Amino acid sequence: MDPRAPGGRTVMTDAAPRALPFAPGSVSLGPASPFARARDQMLHLARVYPVDRLLAVFRANAGLDTFGAEPPGAWEGFGHPAEEAWGEDDYPGREAAQTANLLRGHYAGHFLSMLSLAAANERDPILRAKVDDLVAGLAEVQAALAETGRYSHPGFLAAYGEWQFARLEHFAPYGEIWAPYYTCHKIMAGLLDAHELAGSRRALEVVTAMGHWVSGRLERLDDERRQRMWSLYIAGEFGGMNETLARLSVVADEPRFLAAARCFDQAEILDAGAAGRDILDGMHANQHLPQLVGYVDEYERTGRRSYLDAAIGIFDQVVPGRMYAHGGTGESELWGPAGAVAGDIGRRNAETCATYNLLKLARRLFGHTLDARYLDYAERAQLNHVLGSRRDVLSSESPEVAYMFPVHAGAVPEFDNTGTCCGGTGLENHVGHHDGLFFRGAGERAELWVARYTAAELRWPERRLRIEIEQAHPFADRTVLRVRIEGAEPVPLTLHLRIPSWVSGPVGLELDGEPVAATTEAGGFATLERFWVGGETIVLTLPASLRAEPTIDDPSLRSLAYGPHVLVARERGTTTIDRPWDGRRLPGDALRADVDDVADALAVHGCVPVAGLRFEPIWNGSDQRYHLYSRAVDTTIGFAGVDSGVPTRRRADGTTLLDDLWAAPSPRDAAELIDRVVTACRAGVAERLISGSEARAVVGDALRAFDTAAPRAGAGDAVSAPRERARAFVAETAALPDAVMPPDVRIDVSPAPASSGWFTASPTVTVRSTRGSDDATRLQLRVDGGAWTDAARLVIEREGVVTVEARAVDPDGRASTVRRELSIDTLAPRSDARVKDLGAAVEITLVATDDVSGVDSIRWEGEGTFWATFQEAFVRALTDHEQVIEFAATDRAGNEEPRRRITLPPAPKPDTIAIAPAPARETARSETDS
Q1: Of the four, 270, 478, 776, 898, which is 20 to 30 A from 666 by CA?
Q2: What confidence score (pLDDT) does residue 917 get?
Q3: Residues 78, 110: contact at Cβ < 8 Å?
């Protein structure tokens, strides 16, 4: 029988995963783990946040007493005062009845999942009791809605009417409705988690009834209509409905739910993913990522390989071709073109929800393939994006997590997010940092995979086994694993230790002090197979180095990392930082810091100085501005931090000797580095990119740089032959006269840019030559690739990122060219206010535009408030007297517009609200003005 059909039986398959996660409560983080901080902060919120606030929107919709509780806020509000709990057929239309907070209820579903995970992980009866209270409240609401007879099935449960689902079936756009099945999924997933993780039988009853309601709605629709529904931007977003229904079909032993899960199959995604055809450009990332996790569930239930192939195919289109350095993806929630990372950096990159789902998918795909590349991604994203998405503060009100974790220059994570989608997934993220640390073999397979290394403990009672992981600090290259056995009988076990792809040297593996002969290739596993008696100690040494990783589409734009830790520069500017990264490179693609011991600096000080900048782990929860990427700009030739002072002259195609030196594959050790330098200099002398004396200086500096690099490179006597070849080159060029080199040239700019890095006044550029102004050297300028002009000084009156090139040409036609990017924004942004009448109050939405550097913030102030940065639309109650709200926008360059104002009338006349913004008086000041 076809499982798509109602009543279809689940097909028995052999598509079970080969590696499985451990049950909640099996793995605990140690206090030395960097993840423990975020876990403890989120557990505090879990314990103190009132259940009545989560239930308020549900109770209000069902006509039940809210006990005076206020909803969480933001997207989780009560809705419009005129809104009713309309059924599927009696919604009077948008013009007749305004609606608001159309996603309300999703946050409670996430909170229930978080409580269930935390209760299981922490074995905490207080958290278990809160699970029961929240489930009981939802069950009461479901029963109250059923009693009205207003809905299509008594299993309906939502914090708004059924009309959103009915309008979706008639293709209502986003704005009239807001992803009703997305919210349905969060509620159902929370209830299913409450049953599976916290043992709530009542939760299973409630979610089973919801499953029948969903099945009933979808069974009456043909596939063509469903396909069009799911293709609607955001309105058709359904989260992981297919995942939850597939899980529920097993837990409830109800094949109808598997058929309902398959109703959410999106043919376009399935076909393109399975065929490896890239269709993602312009698509909403998190509208589609959750369904891929569901496809893995459907594969396991049906055995249809196309489900798994589609999930793998789409994952491969995102990682690494659309992945930022911290593991995030997407710009303004949308995917950009294939293979574009630098080219898709905007102002709102990397929605945390998307990474939440990519992580779930990566772990599931590893379970089926045992391919370590999925664990490489999971480590990067869990440590850097997800851990970094939790601000380092304790809050009893907010999850304090990031919506967007952007990657542009001078970015700040969008923290807080009570009631938003990322606020919801963030609740779950930080009580689940132990997920994916260990995997176990399926069935009778006595196998264990250690996937990540952080202070933690695994308890595996079925195998009478405990594994403890110890690290001196998160940056240590030495990890100790201790094996504990319960009972006297040895335990047979195959242990797989992941060797990360980032290791930068020979891996050390010891068992009880003795070296172990095992394959330790980066990107694979070291395997130990034996009978374990208990008390064994495994020492794994994973050497790490500081490295600069280029983006996939722009090799000059790079991010810094140490081992798995992505590092960001803390710097106030908002323009891209330039640094001579090639001049700091070491053999093996390592990078030299300003200190010798990077790990020690990070462990002791929490930061490491590199090229005069302070770099910190992106995961430390700071809310200071940061730079994830910086640009490699080397005006002189250098190695390992030794600067020769010799200019990096450019060929006509823009390449330099440094490009030759570090061309892939880059030198692996000091011997290859010296040989590459000699070869590049020999070619450079022939091309007149470098004189003989300059070449000798470069080669000499390379030999000195080797003395610094040798301990790291471990080259031993292998450099003796390259040294001799270098000496021979020096002797050879010393016998030849120097060729005359082109004149050197540089660009000076005044006045200096603002602290943001942007020029907020039109800058003047001046060209200078090292030969001075008394010779016949010709100085020229051009802007943005235009025509060359014979000018040594020019005022740049353009806005935006402007490329200025300068050229110096001597009388014999020898020329040098330099290029410089200037970020110019001399105009303030423009803001406006949109005011919606709510009767006794108004909802105010502040919006601003800036087409150059972009809007940084809008601040506002009113009676009883201070000059504050806005986050979302806010509601202002009308009073018995007139109110004035002042607001102004600031752009990322630092320009601020004059204050503007809204005048709100007294409460008796709410229909006369004056909403026309006007410039504020020059004398208007706030308590934060200087």
Answers
A1: 478
A2: 45
A3: no
